[in-house]
């Protein structure tokens, strides 16, 4: 059943190129994006003036990435909220509000409750899920199914990349509708998005640098993940993955926040995992790495292939292929998944069945 892999988590990590390909297959027809269900009229779509992405856990992190893309391409204000908060406050919802619910299982109690509440208040709801016919799919006005197939390991990996791919297409659709993206740009972006499947394969072909970095960090009691922009969003996911499967305490911070508190934690050998891929804020991340290094931190950098300079600042460098910054979440998340798994195994943990967790959270 594990197809020759030692655990489901690894099998599912290696299933990610296929997940991305299948999630994109058949979606772009004559320059127009096609979704599984779309009960919204072009007029309703054009009228959208606010987006809330609601989700829990890893799915929430996929939402954080999507916020950047939605605002960049469509200029529609977008907020991302954990469903358990959204449902108990009084968010600003009008008929031109789009609520995007992201849920692998399609049955998370808080996410479902948030959808129901939003619909009562008049919002349009778009669901992104892995499970056909799930409550999230049934109760939404539009659906994009991610084609992750069944995910067995409790820690979400391939479903996360599928969600990011689906949310990227939704952001492209909104960009096209609002005039921020031309059809030619949609085609180009879609092609580059599809190419990430190949880039993930490249990462998976040699994971030795990831294992080396993991071995250096395995005995730590705490770790910090830092990055900026898209890099910050995947730090949240990297820290969650590490916590949930290795029980090593980890936190993620937007790197610019270091000076406002977290840097006090650092001491000799404290692991700082920095997402330092090429982006408009690359130099700023490098400064944060230098500041951490000066306090004795052990630096693991996720960097863009060809960046030799980063070796001067980091103890361990994990390279990922060069992609447009907006797609770096897809590529750079993969080494963070493998890093967490590697540490968990070195610490003797069951990576598929972490303690205290269930695959689907159908009660509040
Ligand atoms: C973490 C993880 C959880 C889920 C969360 C939401 O690896 O899997 O944080 O992401 O419980 O689940 P879904 O996406 O099914 O709503």
From TrEMBL:
Keywords: Aminotransferase, Cytoplasm, Glutamine amidotransferase, Repeat, Transferase. Homodimer. GO terms for biological process: amino sugar biosynthetic process; carbohydrate metabolic process; fructose 6-phosphate metabolic process; protein N-linked glycosylation; UDP-N-acetylglucosamine metabolic process. It comes from Slackia heliotrinireducens (strain ATCC 29202 / DSM 20476 / NCTC 11029 / RHS 1). Its EC number is 2.6.1.16. This is Glutamine--fructose-6-phosphate aminotransferase [isomerizing]. GO terms for molecular function: carbohydrate derivative binding; glutamine-fructose-6-phosphate transaminase (isomerizing) activity. It catalyses: D-fructose 6-phosphate + L-glutamine = D-glucosamine 6-phosphate + L-glutamate. The active site is at residue 359. Catalyzes the first step in hexosamine metabolism, converting fructose-6P into glucosamine-6P using glutamine as a nitrogen source. Its main location: cytoplasm. The chain holds residues 248 to 611 of 611 of the full protein. GO terms for cellular component: cytosol. It is found in: Cytoplasm.
